[in-house]
Write a structure and sequence with these properties.
elongated, about 30% helix, 16 strands, about 280 residues, 8 helices, 5-stranded mixed sheet
Amino acid sequence: MTRMTTTTQFLLAGIAGLLICAPIANAQDCTPKHKFDTVEAGTLTVAVTTYAPHSFVDDKGEMKGIDGDIAAEFAKRECLKVKAVAVDPAAAIQYVLSGQADITTGDWYRTAERAKVMNLSAPLYTDQMGIYSKQDFKKVSDLEGKKVGTVQGYLWVSDLKTVLGASLKLYPNSVNMQQDLKSGRIDVAVDGYSTGVVAAQKGALGDIKVSVAAVDPRVKATKEAAQAAFPYSLKAKELGVALDAGITDMHKDGTIVTILKSYGLDGTAANTGAPRLVE
């Protein structure tokens, strides 16, 4: 949802990014697995947005988050240093399109619209639908007959409208919805699972529990959640080959599951299935 899905947003001019260097020491005997050009030779330049737990710059000025850790591991395996540039989300895609960054981090969806203007790496993980409730509901059927809130723009909104009708309330952002859930103005909330994990870690949800929604054929997003990827330039075909191979290896050796769990997620988001685009 918050990972912008319109071409207009892609072309927004970005504000100047705060340059933050997070070098990865290369062993002298390090041998790259692939040959490809980058914006700066020997360096992977990353436009880093702030969208925890997926992408952010920590207090030490280092690139962090699920996407950040995957990107850093890719760079390490390809004997590259990392140069992180902190940017506004509206500017991140433009940084890649204009050749100022090789990739960008921030739970960027693999969408058909985005694929028209840039390449998208193999799927990193899925953005799972989460159910927030004091009762620890896990099924869509648990929501029927309840006052339910969700945030505008997510893939599941249309299907939930069909299932829940007038009992579904839409919110402009997660903060307002969480406030209504805690105060009892709604019984259940539906939002991104990862967003809920972060909120729970910060103590913002009180006794509210967050669970990944079980598969329900009436809500497509519970079965085929949006896949996140690294956007990169249409011209950078060799980089794309290396990214896809590296991501595939990290799925096979469990690296991505380990990274997901390190941020409090259960790791099931690594089960992305075959690459697909959100229409």
